[in-house]
Specification:
This protein has 149 residues and is an alpha/beta fold. It is built from four helices and six strands.
């Protein structure tokens, strides 16, 4: 796993799976959701999942986990675009885990299963279209869970 430059690509090269993730919660902690957009050679898959009551950091971690679990070919090159400094620090800068240890351990093991995995920092709420879509999916998961409860 490595960290790429801190800017988002505006062009998505072919032959690379591009993932955009975001987590959200209403209150912190509170009802939480995850969103992910997976793009490969012009095809798009979207994931929106309600994860119950959680913190924003848990939602951000779970968004990456859910997206990586959805990848069918783990040998393909993957770029994960996310706006969470917390997740980037834990996965690329070897930050010490103080909270959410079990989840971070699971996510690190999952990420290690990808031989060509890169994480890229994108700015939050800065009109990066697919990051904004991932945020929308995370918030939509929370709204749907609240209206169905």
């Amino acid at each position: 796993m490595r960290l790429m430059s801190k800017t988002a690509a505006t062009h998505l090269p072919e032959g690379i799976l591009h993932i955009f993730t975001d987590g959200a919660c209403t209150g912190n902690p509170g009802p939480a959701g995850c969103g992910a957009v997976l793009m490969y050679n012009g095809r798009k898959k979207e994931i929106a999942r309600f994860i119950g009551d959680a913190t924003n950091n848990i939602a951000e971690l779970m968004a990456v986990k859910i997206a990586l679990e959805a990848v069918k070919d783990r040998t393909a090159p993957v770029v994960v675009n996310l706006d969470s400094e917390y997740v980037l620090g834990l996965l690329t800068l070897d930050w010490k885990v103080r909270a959410n240890k079990e989840l971070v351990t699971e996510l690190r093991a999952l990420a290690a299963a990808f031989p060509d995995l890169v994480f890229r920092k994108v700015p939050a709420h800065a009109s990066v279209a697919l990051n904004e879509r991932a945020d929308h999916l995370a918030r939509m998961a929370i709204r749907k869970a609240r209206t169905c409860a």
